[in-house]
């Protein structure tokens, strides 16, 4: 089928193509890029009760649009990448497996003590989230290693057998094993697994030295417990979806987006499903890599606003920071993850008045069903989408490919009932207040990943993504002081598109304790050797060798006396260069360095990357050589500075690459609507994307 005809009636796409599917809270998005680089985007409502139904649904919708059966669409697919919130939802909804845990004697309560961490140090009453394994299912066994991996206390095998009997009697579905200092050697944990396999018939076992061999019994224990908690549901879902798609005609197994922004096969993900916790949002890094390639800009901060939430991701110098400090619903996970900040601010975010008579926006959302009040599907409370509609920013009628329809009367009634009347405001002023408060939340979300990480947002281009992102991009950028806003033509499929520009990535770790300047090169080489061997083997299993396989060595470094380490990528063992790189990062993050201070190595890391061969995106087709003409004029509220204006409305398909238009204006695209303020300048690049130069900052 390569480069030939397909069974689809739409002959404008050339096989083989790549498909990315992102399951969001409101819509399931699909991006298809063909052999010539042409891009097509499709959307259909998500099915929260059955995410796989949402995946099949958007594929069937796409096949119908392209004029053929689903089997033909899948048969022409060379690469299928999937991002799902199923791991996150399993945690948030508390619907994971019944787990047991085997720990070293004396460490039974580490999960409950949590090192005393509290989100608010002044709030001593708010309860911590429930411990995943209740105390009677956390079974202590005699077994300990010293810090160098030597056996300090031999494993008592009778303790393990007794624990297995408890697990069998109590219906435990999944077991986590976290023995003292197992990061240094997994010998005792492996023996525990062998003994359990003989006496317990549960679904899965998770070993801490396999899942993430980090120092710290709490961090390692919390991570392996979560891995055991989500594994049966997540792995089962992924394997069933993979098998179903293969049965329907997909020629190759699917790949999955991990929290680290890379993709991996179902086979590799099955061992560490906890690494899929940020599966959907982390794909945004792939989209930023694409936009960096198209714009030549290295410093980008993405504000992806969907129907339920806003995910903020930052790329500085062409790299997106990765952290091991991930928290989901109060649970601490030591797993490699893109630094993403999420707030409950999306098109479906609910607004109302609290008991104190104050306007409240979020974090609750209306979701895909029933959705905003304007959908007419049972919700009578106003959302951000209803506010935009009441202010003339959105066109009434069908949206999202006809999946839903916007009714302005329902939107106005919801705002009047729940906000305007209680506050004594007009419907319009109430809608303005809803959006101002929402945009304040968006502003703080961007500052969390920029200002609080030592970056000046004025030096960044704001990427306004997600279906609702380009509606707020200019306003938030103006407040931040950003000079430019990049609004992708396919903003509503930001993560689905990013999946197609993500590479295979596997992270591995080995703890090391040493002085940066005093540790011999030979010792560092010996420490990295097993990581390099493991990385090459893992990439080979995924089909990447030679030039397609990249192995990046990283050191975890900190000053003597500090608790937390910073990751520093290295190219060789030039100590002066490593010190300069570490201190530059330290100065940016914390505002100071220790000149001549002792720098300690706390861990060796390897980032193994498999470079996926992909066709660069094709330039947009030029409709005509004439400047675009507005198809309509609509009275809308632009912003507090401009107020109400009759604003020209353009269709995205009429926008000519290379053209420039002065705001205020509205551009209506298939997956989003773009709003530019008075004095802003909107230009269209060769690929049909929009760059908004902010008027006050030009």
Automatic annotation (TrEMBL):
Domain (Acetophenone carboxylase-like C-terminal) spans 522-687
The Hydantoinase A/oxoprolinase domain is annotated at 220-506
- State one molecular function term (GO): 5-oxoprolinase (ATP-hydrolyzing) activity
Matching SUPFAM superfamilies? Actin-like ATPase domain
Q: Which InterPro entries match?
A: ACX-like_C, ATPase_NBD, Hydant_A_N, Hydantoinase_A, Oxoprolinase-like
Residue span, Hydantoinase/oxoprolinase N-terminal domain: 18-197
User: What cellular component terms from Gene Ontology apply here?
Assistant: cytosol
Q: Coiled coil where?
A: none
One GO process term, biological-process aspect: glutathione metabolic process
PANTHER family according to UniProt: 5-OXOPROLINASE RELATED (PTHR11365), HYPOTHETICAL 5-OXOPROLINASE (EUROFUNG)-RELATED (PTHR11365:SF23)
The molecule here is called 5-oxoprolinase
Source organism of this protein record: Minwuia thermotolerans
């Amino acid at each position: 089928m390569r480069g030939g005809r397909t069974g689809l009636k739409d002959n404008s796409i050339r096989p083989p193509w790549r498909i990315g599917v992102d399951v969001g809270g409101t819509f399931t998005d699909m991006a298809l890029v063909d052999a010539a680089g042409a891009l097509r985007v499709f959307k259909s409502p998500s099915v929260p009760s059955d995410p796989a139904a949402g995946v099949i649904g958007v594929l069937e919708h796409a096949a119908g649009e392209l004029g053929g059966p689903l089997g033909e669409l899948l048969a022409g697919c060379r690469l299928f990448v999937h991002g799902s919130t199923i791991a996150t939802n399993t945690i948030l909804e508390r619907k994971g497996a019944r787990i047991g845990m085997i720990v070293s004697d004396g460490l039974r309560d580490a999960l409950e003590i949590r090192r005393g961490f509290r989100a608010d140090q002044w709030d001593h009453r708010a309860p911590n989230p429930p411990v995943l394994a209740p105390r009677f299912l956390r079974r202590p066994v005699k077994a300990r290693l010293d810090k160098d991996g030597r056996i300090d206390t031999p494993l008592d095998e009778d303790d393990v057998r007794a624990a297995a009997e408890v697990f069998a009697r109590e219906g435990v579905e999944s077991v986590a094993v976290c023995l003292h200092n197992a990061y240094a050697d997994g010998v005792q944990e492996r023996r525990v697994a062998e003994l359990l396999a003989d006496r317990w018939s549960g679904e899965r076992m998770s070993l801490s030295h396999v899942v993430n061999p980090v120092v710290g019994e709490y961090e390692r224990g919390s991570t392996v417990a979560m891995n055991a908690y989500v594994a049966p549901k997540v792995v089962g879902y992924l394997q069933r979806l993979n098998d179903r798609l293969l049965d329907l005609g997909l020629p190759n197994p699917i790949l999955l987006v991990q929290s680290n922004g890379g993709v991996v096969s179902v086979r590799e993900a099955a061992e560490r499903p906890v690494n899929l916790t940020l599966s959907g949002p982390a794909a945004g890094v792939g989209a930023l890599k694409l936009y960096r390639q198209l714009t030549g800009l290295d410093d980008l901060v993405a504000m992806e606003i969907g129907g339920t939430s806003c995910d903020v991701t930052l790329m500085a110098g062409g790299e997106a920071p990765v952290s091991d400090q991930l928290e989901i619903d109060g649970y601490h996970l030591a797993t490699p993850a893109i630094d993403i900040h999420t707030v409950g601010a999306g098109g479906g975010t609910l607004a109302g008045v609290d008991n104190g008579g104050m306007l409240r926006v979020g974090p609750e959302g209306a979701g895909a069903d029933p959705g905003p009040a304007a959908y007419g599907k049972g919700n009578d409370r106003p959302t951000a989408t209803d506010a935009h509609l009441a202010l003339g920013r959105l066109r009434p009628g069908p949206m999202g490919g006809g999946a839903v329809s916007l009714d302005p009367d329902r939107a106005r009634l919801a705002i009047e009932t729940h906000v305007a009347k209680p506050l004594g405001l007009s419907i319009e002023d109430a809608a303005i207040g809803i959006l101002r408060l929402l945009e304040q939340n968006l502003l703080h979300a961007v500052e969390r990943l920029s200002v609080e990480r030592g970056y000046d947002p004025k030096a960044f281009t704001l990427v306004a993504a997600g279906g609702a992102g380009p509606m707020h991009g200019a306003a938030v950028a103006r407040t931040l002081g950003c000079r430019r806003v990049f609004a992708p033509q396919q903003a509503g499929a930001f993560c689905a598109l990013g999946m197609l520009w993500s590479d295979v990535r596997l992270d591995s770790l080995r703890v090391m304790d040493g002085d940066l300047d005093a540790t011999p090169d030979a010792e560092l080489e010996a420490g990295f050797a097993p990581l390099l061997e493991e990385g090459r083997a893992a990439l080979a299993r995924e089909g990447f060798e030679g030039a397609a396989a990249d192995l990046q060595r990283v050191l975890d470094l900190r000053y003597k006396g500090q608790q937390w380490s910073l990751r520093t990528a290295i190219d060789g063992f030039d100590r002066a260069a490593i010190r300069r790189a570490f201190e530059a990062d330290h100065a940016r993050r914390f505002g100071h360095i220790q000149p001549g201070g002792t720098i300690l190595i706390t861990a060796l890391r390897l980032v193994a990357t498999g470079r996926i061969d992909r066709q660069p995106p094709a330039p947009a087709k030029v409709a005509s050589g004439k400047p675009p003409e507005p198809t309509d004029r609509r009275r809308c509220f632009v912003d507090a500075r401009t107020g109400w204006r009759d604003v020209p409305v353009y269709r995205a398909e009429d926008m000519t690459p290379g053209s420039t238009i002065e705001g205020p204006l509205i551009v209506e695209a298939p997956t989003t609507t773009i709003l530019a303020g008075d004095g802003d300048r909107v230009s269209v690049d060769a690929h049909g994307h929009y760059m908004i130069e902010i008027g006050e900052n030009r």
